[in-house]
Amino acid sequence: MKRIFVNANILIDFLTQRKPFDVKAGIIFSLAEKGEISCGVSVLSIANTHYHLLKLVKPESAKELIRKFKLLLQVKPLNEKFIDLSLNNMDFRDFEDALQYYTALEYGYESILTRNLKDFKRSNLPVFTPSQLLEVLKK
Q1: Orientation of helix 59-69 relative to helix 43-53, angle to 10°
Q2: CATH 3.40.50.300: does it fit domain 2-138?
Q3: What sequence ranges are listed for the domain PIN (predicted)?
Q4: What is the β-pairing status of strands 73-76 and 37-42?
């Protein structure tokens, strides 16, 4: 089973139904639901997704969406090691992206799923958009 680390933008696309990005994200999450792939996220991604959901729905609805959706995911914690690595890594311009990267590495994910490939151009892990990942999974 492929272990995919999912960046926050993919969660946000799916749960906020951001067109047209939600469709391919939905296909990927349906593969996770069937057990064909394993999807992990950081706790930071859950918090960011909740923030974006609050712009669209009431707080209790946002919590309920996340409560149900997280059943498909492995939610991974952050720690001080990831913060230190991210602060000292000049390959990532964005601190949050560095945190995501080190979380994926630490927990043994095989690749990163994001819409923003440029944010992870220095990654030692393969990085895919949803379209690219679906093509790879077909093979």
Answers
A1: 140
A2: no
A3: 3-117
A4: parallel
Cα separation of 90 and 39, whole Å? 27
Tokens 């601190």 sit on residue:
95
Q: Identify whether 130 is preceded by a cis peptide bond (ω within 30 of 0).
A: no
Helix (H/G/I), strand (E/B), else coil: 94: coil
Could you give the percent of the chain with pLDDT greater than 90? 92
pLDDT in tens, 6-46: 999 999 999 999 999 999 999 999 999 999 999 999 999 99
Q: Is pLDDT larger for residue 139 or for residue 65?
A: 65
Residue boundaries of the structural domains of the chain = 2-138
* Cis amide prior to 126 (ω within 30 degrees): no
- Using a cut of 0.85, tell me whether the model's pTM lies above it: yes
Predicted pLDDT at 115:
95
- Taken in order 112, 37, 69, 43, is the CA torsion positive or negative? negative
Give the residue carrying structure tokens 């926050």: 8
